[in-house]
Give the backbone structure.
Amino acid sequence: MMRYKLPLIALLLIALVAVPPLFGGGVQYALVNALIASLFAAAFNLLMGQGGMLSFGHAAYFGIGAFAVLHLMQAVEYGYMGVPTVLLPLAGGLAGLIGGLFAGYFATMRAGVYFSLVTLALAELLFSLAPHWEGIFGGEAGLSSMRMPWLGFNFGTTLEVYYLTLVWVVLCLAVLYAYTLTPFGRLTQALRDNSQRIRYMGYNAHTTKVVVFAISTTFAGIAGGLMAMSNETANYSIFSTHISAEVVLYTFVGGSTVFFGPIIGASIFTLFGFVVSGATNAWLLYQGLIFVLVMLFAPKGIGGLIQAHIDQRHRLPWARLPLPYAVLAGGGVFMSLAVVFFIQSFEHVLSNRYQAVVARTGEWPDYHLFGASWDPLSPVTWLVPLILFVPGVIIVRKAAARIHEMWEGQGADVEKSEAAPATSGGH
């Protein structure tokens, strides 16, 4: 399995190094955000996916790391300290570690939903207090600073910030992956599966949880520090539940059972937001729909779906799979077009500008979508998404049934082939 992973990782790294200079500053900035979100999601998944502890307030440690780095950046900018710019994220990691040790000690006294609620309460407390602690968090305006030159690098361009972020994210992800292979990493998984067994083995379950929590918040703090360096500013909104909810979304959509799953989810959603947010105000609705669909039909996430194919690579009939997969994708395109048509039509018709025209003229003018004009009062307009959606559902259901049959049939064939030698051996 490793012989496939290493070449793929090498190709990905080459692409991450070579491709960004071909794009403009906007795309480069989006890639920086995708890298930071990937590290944040991987740090969160160490706690949730590996340790089985679902935190609803991980934005607290992401924000603590950001403000710690901004304070250090100000000290460097004003000449009070001489810390190299490339080492600034360490301050975020240290702040995340301290915050994680303190909060983790109390949060891990409870398990399950009570643990989640305690983490949410601690994060909300910080979110409420931050605007009033001007000396630490800069009030409602927040803090800002500038990246200072180091060894000939000005860090004044988005591309330089991208490469700095890339180095830090790759190093941190390598450390997190190595952690999963250590004995303590195995202990973390055992903590997720059965914490009572940890006690029987002679370990202190509470202390183990605190350590895992602190390691997770350390890397979340580094991710926050990288965000602060990228934006050169941060305010109290970084502690909001929106940030905490985003990392949960990334992790579950990507797949918490696979190490690279949350990284996939974070990258997809960050770049999706960059591309789609400029085209529609309903992009968060689309994100929510994707989340719902993944949870309904691929509960182990995108990474889990990929992992299932890798695990069954020797059993699946690869020669017969492309056609039903293509048909499934085609049906999905029909359904997606119908949903987009419906949502965007409502966005146009219910927008303030359109409603102002209706109020002024008393008429419902045509709106433009997909390169055509549509009459909102015509039944034909609203039949279009129905005409697209119904065939799409039929195609998807038939293709999904065929794919399920091929997967199950292949499993049955394998069971027969494994049972045949045992039967012949009995005779």
User: Anything to note?
Assistant: The beta strands are 143-144, 233-234, 367-369, 372-374. Residues 411-427 have pLDDT under 50 and may be disordered. The radius of gyration is 25 Å.
